[in-house]
């Protein structure tokens, strides 16, 4: 079964939160960490995975991403803190082999 993910990345000081969707979370987080693409996350050094939710359907993941993006920063912070109270990098210890 192929899963999809809605995720949030932050920078070291948690001043910026990026929300995205992907079908390959490991690869996408690696791309953020290595600044593989020039854009928002590379510009603001969003390289900490602070939240993710798994879905069995890409449409559901996209809908959840839209809901998060439409919400306030406070709502994003609450969602992150419910899953990850210390805002740790949830990808710590992941092995990136590409």
Automatic annotation (TrEMBL):
<dbReference type="Pfam" id="PF01541">
    <property type="entry name" value="GIY-YIG"/>
</dbReference>
<dbReference type="InterPro" id="IPR000305">
    <property type="entry name" value="GIY-YIG_endonuc"/>
</dbReference>
<dbReference type="InterPro" id="IPR035901">
    <property type="entry name" value="GIY-YIG_endonuc_sf"/>
</dbReference>
<dbReference type="InterPro" id="IPR050190">
    <property type="entry name" value="UPF0213_domain"/>
</dbReference>
<comment type="similarity">
    <text>Belongs to the UPF0213 family.</text>
</comment>
<protein>
    <submittedName>
        <fullName>GIY-YIG nuclease family protein</fullName>
    </submittedName>
</protein>
<feature type="domain" description="GIY-YIG">
    <location>
        <begin position="2"/>
        <end position="78"/>
    </location>
</feature>
